Amino acid sequence: MSARSRISWPVLLVGLVVVVPLLYLFVRGLGFDPKDVASPLVGKPAPVFALEALDGSRVSLATLRGRPLILNFSATWCVPCRQEHGELVMAARQLGASASVVNVIYEDEPEAMRAWVQGSGFPTLIDPGGQTAIAYGVYGVPETFFIDASGVIREKVKGPVDLGRIRDTLEAMP
Amino acid sequence: MTALIGRLLIYVALACAASGALLAFAARGDTARLKLSRRLGYGFAGAFILATLWMIIGLVRHDFSISYVAHVGSLATPLHITIVSLWSSLEGSILFWAAVLSIYSLFFLRAQRGREADPRSAYSLGIILVVGAFFALLISAVANPFLATPLPIPTDGNGPNPLLQNHALMIIHPPMLYLGYVGMTIPFAMAIGALLVGRTDPDWMRSMRRWMMVPWGFLTAGIVLGGWWAYEVLGWGGWWGWDPVENASLLPWLAATAFLHVSMLEERRGLYKGWTFTLVLVTFALTVLGTFMTRSGVFNSVHAFTQSPIGPTFLAFLAVVVLGSVVLLSLRLHRLEPGRPMRSALSREAAFVFQNLLFVSFTFTVLLGTAYPLVAEAVRGIKVSVGGPFFSDFVVPIGIAILFLMGIGPALPWGAATPREALRALVVPLGMGGLVVVAFVLGGVTHGWALTALGACGFAAAVSLRELAAPVRARIKAHGESVFAAVAGTFRHGRRRLGGHIVHLGVTLLGGAIAISSADQKMVEAVLHDKDSFVIGDYWLQYTGARVVSEPHRERHFADFVVVEGTDELGVMSPAMNRYSAAMNAIGTPAVRTSASHDLYLSIMHLDDNEVGVRAFINPGMAWLWIGAGVMLLGCAIAVVPERRVRPVVVVAT
Amino acid sequence: MITSLAVALTMLLGANAGPVLGPELNDAVGAPAGIALSGDALERRLAVLSSEIRCPVCQGQAIVDSPAESARHMKEQVRAMLAAGYSDEQILTWLEGRYGEFIRLSPRAEGLNLIVWILPALLLLLGLGVVIAVVQRSRKAARAADANAGLDPWIEKVRREAGGGHE
Hints:
With 174 residues, chain A is α/β, with parallel strands linked by helices. Chain A has six helices and seven strands; from the N terminus they run αββαβαβαβαββα. In chain A, helix 3 (79-95) links the parallel strand 3 and strand 4. Helix content of chain A is 37%, strand content 19%. Chain A has a single domain, classed as 3-Layer(aba) Sandwich (Glutaredoxin), CATH 3.40.30. Chain A has helices spanning 9-29, 61-64, 79-95, 110-117, 131-135, 163-172, and strands at residues 50-53, 58-60, 69-74, 100-105, 124-126, 143-147, 153-158. With 654 residues, chain B is of the alpha+beta class. Among the domains of chain B are: 2-235 and 244-260 and 272-336, no CATH class; 522-624, Tick-borne Encephalitis virus Glycoprotein, domain 1 (Sandwich). Chain B contains 20 helices and ten strands. In chain B, the strands form two sheets. In chain B, strands 2, 3, 4, 5, 6 and 7 form a six-stranded antiparallel sheet that branches. In chain B, strands 1-10-9-8 form a four-stranded antiparallel sheet, covered by helices on one side. In chain B, helix 2 (31-60) packs antiparallel against helix 5. The termini of chain B are far apart. Chain C has seven helices and no strands. By secondary structure, chain C is mainly α. The radius of gyration of chain C is 29 Å and the shape is rod-shaped. In chain C, helix 1 crosses helix 4 and helix 3 crosses helix 4. Chains B and C meet through helix 11, helix 14, helix 15, strand 1 and strand 2 of B and helix 6 of C.
């Protein structure tokens, strides 16, 4: 039995090279939110759409150009969407003609939405086959896209927005 | 009051574990101290087991003054689910973990009776108690199920997670996993003990190996049950999704399997002690990592409901474990005696070494794939996915290579074989493998990888069968025993080998089933109204309507299908959608009709008054997947039971 | 019955091509670079491609497996694009432009992602080298031990007892 301790440097080095980066990675990982996926569409032109609203009118991206657009995706089965709805109604009222608010139905029955959005003051659009949601890269509801007057997406918000957030984002837009 | 008692029990466990560990490390051969540390070990285990029983009693009595009961208890939940809700949420899970560790500790303490003089035994106990103390600290300070519910005490609760109530498998899958995961603490402690003392011997290694086999078996069962749960419950027709938490359970299993093999090499020739110990340490580290991955909230997972605040604590624990292991190993490597060198590349020894290489590759690939999204986010700031297609690309070839080695290894002798001997040993099994391929080609399978895998399985199975028959035939020839007596004799004296080959046989069944079910799956999707029908394979199915069955905690919506095969009416299959009062989305239960050759699998996509959206699968060979796993467990059970060893008797001349 | 359903769906989508099949798509990914598929070939290609696309609302499932409505809609979209003749790469690129790289279940083999594609193979090769070296060294040592073994049984006994090894 040897009395002195001898270090095996190769083992120590290989071990540390494997272990330390992994630990560092996990420490960094604790700061990430696995559900928060950034949208690649921010800074790009908004995908075009031409959809029918619940009241029968046709709304398209082209008709909305010229002023900022708040494009919101929601559904009746989504609890935060219901909470957010009131904020959107207030926003539409306050913004008036200075910005548009448009709501797109996500994976829900138009008839179910109809009762909910009565008197909201902004159009609610039917999205057949979920194509608009796919075109916008929607990961779930509620999601809101802030599009500027020239049709470029400036911000995407995942989760419910409130009046303050809406105002701040609009102010920050060029 | 009841919550207070629970908290006190945890503190007792903490005190016993901490002081027991200190004594075990400081004992230095003092028998009195060692005996006391063992008693404290019993105290720690007893306190935790009592605390767990106390929690179960609290759950059953619906004692909502205990915070955990208020969190997961509900008057509407059936009794068996109430008991099982012990592990339905984080705090209870950690308590359950500590209880399982306590049970293993009790067995370890008993097995180490009379070995107090061995410092390795003392150090191993010390390590186990350190881990126990960590969990006691975690429970009392970070995730305590015994907190007092803030007033006013509610009269009812939400009940446990609906997924727990959806299928009986959820009752047994977590305990099996825990028995696997937690059990790996014991061989880890034994490895650290041996390394700290700097001495190892065949007895200790053999014992360490057996202490790894037991959790290996449980972990195998837990992983397979998880797959069965995914198949029976999640309804997508598959059983493995490469979800990060699934991977977390697979990683220690792979490392443990590598260990179980190379330790045989160590036992035979004393080779690669350092690597053998490394694998034990890695296995335990992977269990800690796995727990971190499951509960930290860092990974996107189907098991996301278990996110919790214990992430940083577990990461710190992981850091101590891995850094400590690396340092200890590098300091003690020179004390480990080298073994007798391998003579030839054409030998079982070499096969074991290659097997270990493949398993390490497998482990590394799964770990890298699971962790890579974090790398991408840390470096590029964007999220990427690493899912099924990536893992399949690597795992399929590695898996097939492992299957081939599983046949080559046992076929080659220990020591050295000439090329001619090797060929003679391999030619018949290779022929069998070829026959298997031909049979499946004639049966209509064209998928290249699947056929290769099936051939490898056939080859390995042939070798295993020959190895199972060999000792029996030898006994018949040598002693003239009957077949029955020969088999019994082999069972009595050659259990480890017997069990090992049975496990291999199980693996070939499992591997073959995986190959054929992936290659030949048929799927049909249909939207049906009442009396509509559709065809899949040889089956004709007709939708005959929906019905609702109300249970106290959920509402089950069934869709009935009449199934006809050829001209035989086979009855009714009823997949369901379950709506729980506590959850928003419905959870589906598929209907599965199993036969020896394939499963007919129906799962509901959507169901309302007018129509049902249904997906139907024909999954070939699925039954053999579960049978293969069962055979593996049987083999493990046979191998684990220790054989009575002849103890040398000292005869003193007078 | 199923084929007619698939055909009906495709026609329905074609009629309401909306924001996907149109000039904007060609701007994003170019003109259709593949061949327009139909029938069984279409279904087979769809099954393979949609197993590589992540369901946006599920936990790690592919859209081929997921019963979620948004996954099924995405699958229809992909089917329409395949029927229109777009290649796999074009479809994946388009989806990445909307959802980010996260939507691909198998990371693109370029840039940093090469780590995850190359490292496992590299480790296997490295390991193979190590194993072969170990086996070679072992064989040499065994041969040397054999050569010395016959020399002096007493020295051999001492060597064995001092140098370790069992049996």
